[in-house]
Structures
1.
Amino acid sequence: MGAPLDRSATWPYEQGEPGRFSYARADHPTGVACEEALGALDGGHALLYPSGMGAVTTVVLTLLRPGGTVALAEGAYYGHRVLLDHLGGWGVNVVEFDQTAAPPDDVDLILVEAPANPLLTMPDLEAAAGHPAPVVCDATVASPLRLRPLEHGCEIALHSATKVLAGHDDVVAGVTVTRDEELRDRLHLTRRLAGIVASADTAWLVRRGLETLEVRLARQEETARTLVERLTSHRSVEVVRYPGISFLVSFDVADGDAAGRVERGVRVIENATSLGGTRSKLEARHRWEGDRIPAGLLRLSVGLEDPEQLWADLEQALTQA
Ligand code: PLP
């Protein structure tokens, strides 16, 4: 099925010279086959990484200089903030901004998220693209089937392919996609020199996931809409966030204790982290993110199970809220 899995780390030279593939830290055929499929989805040149964070790290090392500032969307994936703070020692500064409006003036790189995980705001991509700094849009949750950031003026579309692209919670991977070939080459150079390289197994699993992406996403989205409707009228649920696309929902119960009881109460839905996989997952995010989000916030990643079974599970868990 699909491209063969080639785990080679090296390939023989052709008439004494390196051919298209010579050493897997630069490129390997299974990775390139996966990148071609990913590039077609987002409309650009894709590069694969061993994680979403590997992709972000490569982007920051390539585009930012010491003393530079990243404008990060408020409420975006908390790992981005933690990474950028960690890179403070290398001269990376970070400011957060409301991504539904224009980014601040004096910044060198803009990182928005569509939609932001877990507050689920959507960025104003037009306002971001009007800024002179390059714009990176993490579209992990939207997926290229619901948003193609390069068509909205972003320089880089970025995904944690660990989530819905691979879709089965059995691989960690990341992707960047650019229209500009020179930018792709600069990212590739950083990736190769730093060794931020996805294995052939990773590439094979991501590519296999893409074959069912469309049907998985359609089903997950339809179920998400049903659950959102019912959560909205549930008496223990104070706020429901859903951007109208994709599989991710967040909702608030009264407080952190109530959220803890609900997450421990689910039986069909897994009480686990991550999102985008075939099995639904629920998690109170306060344990990770602290006061940047409401204490009673629960993040629900809707999977492929029967929607009525999922609702029955949520309903019984919510009786403990
Ligand atoms: N971007 C978003 C929106 C995420 O949710 C995550 C992980 O949860 C990441 C990036 C990081 O991806 P990875 O865990 O593949 O490194």
Note: The chain has a mean pLDDT of 98.
2.
Amino acid sequence: MSAAPVVELSNVSRSYPGPPEVRAVHEVNLRIDRGDYLSIVGPSGSGKSTLLHLLGLLDRPSSGTYRLDGIDVAELSHARRSTLRGAQIGFVFQAFHLLPSRTVLDNVMLSMLYQGISRARRRATAEIALQQVDLAERSSFLPTQLSGGERQRVAIARALAGRPSLLLADEPTGNLDHHNAIGVMDLFDELHAAGLTLAVITHDDEVSARAQRRVRIADGELVTL
Ligand code: ADP
Ligand code: MG
């Protein structure tokens, strides 16, 4: 484990060429330390998803520097970025993206398929992740047999199974009713207390208020709250 911050963005911008050119993220500076729980809040179109894609190595800055665990990611080949993403980042999206015909356990195990881990080890790791989200009893269920909140907790277990340095969530409660949203927020509190580093992107003030530190994004620029 390196001593560097998990995330260090320096003057990072991302423009979509267009025309017209859109400056989706503009000159962003952001540091996320190990164990931080950060929320990034902003209205629709403010650049939240673009920022999350940059943080998650799904996209590259047009300019500026991104260090993830001290590694300057601009220097990396496509293959090394993919490997780094798989090793360091866990993703949770608004739509849960579970495979409907696979059990809960399989959905979590499949996330580790290409990491050269034995099936027995993948199974054990998936079972631990499902315990962390309190769904061990639902291992053999299909996603269609679960509530929305439970499905999102499976998606969180899948993200945790890779032991990420950073959990990135984009509107994680966007498809949930209030009761289930609170369940997911409570789970994030627990995971944070257990040492996980989280960045949660949301347009919902109630969700963002749970974080230890909040930043707002407006027209691609960050403001600390
Ligand atoms: P948010 O997630 O906050 O709704 P986005 O990051 O999705 O915001 O979008 C920020 C801005 O960038 C918006 O003006 C959006 O229209 C624009 N944008 C997003 N993705 C693309 C793209 N692939 N090509 C062009 N413009 C884009
Ligand atoms: Mg978005």
Note: The chain has one domain: 7-224.
